[in-house]
Structures are given as structure tokens and as C-alpha cells.
Write a structure and sequence with these properties.
CATH class: Mainly Alpha
CATH superfamily: Winged helix-like DNA-binding domain superfamily/Winged helix DNA-binding domain
Strand order of the largest sheet: 1-3-2
CATH topology: Arc Repressor Mutant, subunit A
Order of helices and strands: HHEHHEEHH
Structural class: mainly alpha
Number of helices: 6
Number of domains: 1
Largest sheet: 3 strands, antiparallel
Amino acid sequence: MKTGVPHTQEGAYACPVTFTADVIGGKWKTLLIFHLMSGTRRFNELRRMIPEITQRMLTLQLRELESWGLVNRHVYQEVPPKVEYSLTELGSTLIPLVSAMREWGSQYEEVLIKVKGQAAANE
């Protein structure tokens, strides 16, 4: 059985960690959830917060999060169009997970950079 592939007709995954990684994994989704944790954001506001992401990738990642029911997209009928994104109730259940990731990163960033630097020096 391949990891990341549903193993029953109902689409259940063999491992909950694999499923979670499929839903919020990748370079941008967790970061988008992190920025939406503090409240509703407009599309261009998210682009400014994550300058490395392209407009196309931002759109794709937000659509994927929306398709999972984690992000709500609200379009205002005005010119120019105004679009806002926020976490849904289900998306808000990820706040403790993303907060724990942030805390872990702040605690161990320097240690891991040092370890990686030592490993590179030994090569």
C-alpha cells in the first residue's frame, strides 16, 4: 500500500499523520493557516505577508484549503473586487497544531542550524 493513497473505498488513510500531511502539507498551506489564525485577510495582504509566493501559487493553495473546508472565501460585489479569506470552524481546529509547530521552530531553530552547519563542515 502506498502512503498518501486512500486504502479503502471510503477513502480512509492508513495513517492519520499521512492524511494530515496531505491536507496541510507543502511549503505554503501551514504558513497561510498561520497568517489566518489572527483573523480575516485579503488576498493582497497575504501576498505581502508571504512575498516569496507567486500569485498563482497563492490562489491554488487557498483554493485547496477551501476545498477541504478549512478556509472560507468571501467575495464582495464591488469594483475592484474585494476577496477576504478566513479560517472556518474546522480550520480553527488546526490552530493548536500550527501554534505547536511555531513554538517548536522558535525553540530549536538555532540548534538545528548549528547541527546542519556542522554536518556540512564534516562533508
